[in-house]
Amino acid sequence: MAINVLIVDDSGVMRAMILKSLNMSGLPLGDTHQAANGQEGLDVLNQNWVDLVIADINMPVMNGEEMIECMKQKPETKDIPIVVISTEGSEKRLERLRQKGAAFIHKPFSPELIRDTIRNLMGLGGADDGGAD
Ligand SMILES: [Mg+2]
Fold it and tell me: Which backbone phi and psi does 28 adopt, to 5 degrees?
């Protein structure tokens, strides 16, 4: 099973770091898409099959929380697993995101944490499958 991933972050550097972490993770990656804000992310979701969304919170145009709310309102996107990677410190906001089923990773992050969070979220098991560590 290859996982098609959408990375949504207004920082191109951060998107590249997340992508690099995914490439090093040993997870079976399919297509990877990138978007610079929530609205662009929704546009990608409208046009592509995506299995996992990795999203920032603080972005211009449409933030990550608003994007997740829109995803939850559409049958085609409401069940897509979501990992939020952010510097967000508001416990209220994090709790709202958890209630929507999103996993949360604090910046800065390690590639291993991204890998393990995705494995847990998608039920891929914890065993090392021989991929690069
Ligand atoms: Mg940001």
Answer: -75, 90
CA of 10 to the centre of ligand 1 (A): 5
Ligand 1 center–CA 65 separation, angstroms = 12
Is 115 within 8 Å of 21 (Cβ atoms)? yes
Please state the domain count of the chain.
1
Q: Which of 50, 2, 52, 53 is nearest to 27 (CA)?
A: 2
Q: Express each pLDDT in 42-88 by its tens digit.
A: 999 999 999 999 999 999 999 999 999 999 999 999 999 999 999 87
Q: Residue 38 Cα, ligand 1 centroid: separation in angstroms? A: 11
Percent of the chain at pLDDT above 90? 76
Task: Report yes or no on 89 lying in a domain.
Answer: no
Question: Is residue 103 in a domain?
Answer: yes
Q: What is the mean pLDDT of the chain?
A: 91
119 Cα: distance to centroid of ligand 1 (angstroms): 24
45 part of a folded domain: yes
Evaluate whether residue 32 is within a structural domain: yes
pLDDT surpasses 60 at 115: yes
